[in-house]
Amino acid sequence: MYILFLYLVTFLIGALCSAMQQYIDDEEIDVRNAILAETRWAVIFGAFVTMAATATLPWNMWAEMCIAAYLYILFAVQLPKRWANSGDHQAGVHRLYRIVRPVLRILALPVRVPTIVKEEVREEDIREMLSEGSDIDTPKKKWIQNVFEMGDTAIEEICTHRSEVVILSLDQTTAEWRQIIHDNRHTMYPVCREDEDDIIGILDTRDYFRMDEDVDQDTIINNAFDEPFFAAENTKIDALFHQMTNRKNYFCIVVDEYGGMTGIVTLHDIMESLVGEIYEEDDVIEPKEIQQIDANQWRIYGTAELGEVEEALGLELGDEDDETFNGYILTEYGHIPEDGSQFELDLPLMTVHVKEVKNHRIGQTIVQIKEEAHGKTETSH
């Protein structure tokens, strides 16, 4: 008797689950619960039918399993789905759902399975993977490392120093502007009043050269000037990159804590900090800052980092206040040399022949290492 009751319940549950999957919105019921309830009822049904069949047909276990499977497919799958799809039962299904909802919820109680928590990949983990070696080739490794360093590096380290920036002044004539632009071939030029720290705009030569040659300064200011964008020299590269892209700025004036101009940074400079030097067709490729001529002779430019010079020469040179070879030479020389001058500086470990001075900065030098320097180096080792 109770087997017939199981078949009836199975039919009702199968019909209700099938109809619910077809008619009831996801907002009213999670259809997955219906599927889960139907599946779990199949297990319960199979267990009870097997127990009953074992009592009535103990002579053939395989027959019991086949009969139970056939009856379940008939009463729980085929007939319920045929009934659910035979007509518009939506109203009836809703009423029936309200009645048996507690039973379905019990059958569909979630099984607590431990959730696998995905570990977040930290910057330190990626750095460690890169340092230990992986299948990533060397250029890509360098790019990835540069991405992380953008968040740690101040824009002061990549900016073009003010001594190398070509600045236009309102005190100059438009003819002088045109000659300066012709001689330097940059796309954008900062424009100042009397003081170079007082930048009032950025001249965009793409707009400037669309004008007639005889236009006055006010017309140029109104039609070819961009609003200057300023950033503090301690701003990190990645932060400046987001600011410039959001504001659609290509050109940035870098200022110190007192508002004085430190230099300029462009999006081109930021991209070079990520992927390395990017040369354009008309760029003059600058020589390496440190070049070895022979065993004891080097060609070193003033812009070279002092730490790199010390590493190349194998010597300890200036104090910690000097960041570049230019700073070290000027400290040892004791005063600022005149542009175009050449001089020789005799130091304890080397002799420095300064071949070029431009904008009061040391350019090319020839460094001759003294024999006693090698003795001190070997002793220190």
UniProtKB/TrEMBL annotation:
It comes from the Bacteria. CDD domains: CBS_pair_CorC_HlyC_assoc. GO terms for molecular function: flavin adenine dinucleotide binding. The keyword Kinase does not apply. The chain crosses the membrane at residues 43-73. InterPro entries: CBS_dom, CBS_dom_sf, FAD-bd_PCMH-like_sf, FAD-bd_PCMH_sub2, Ion_transp-like_CBS, Transptr-assoc_dom, UPF0053_domain. Keywords: CBS domain, Membrane, Repeat, Transmembrane, Transmembrane helix. The keyword Hydrolase does not apply. Residues 221-281 form the CBS domain. This is Putative hemolysin. It comes from Catenisphaera adipataccumulans. The lineage of its organism: Bacteria, Bacillati, Bacillota, Erysipelotrichia, Erysipelotrichales.
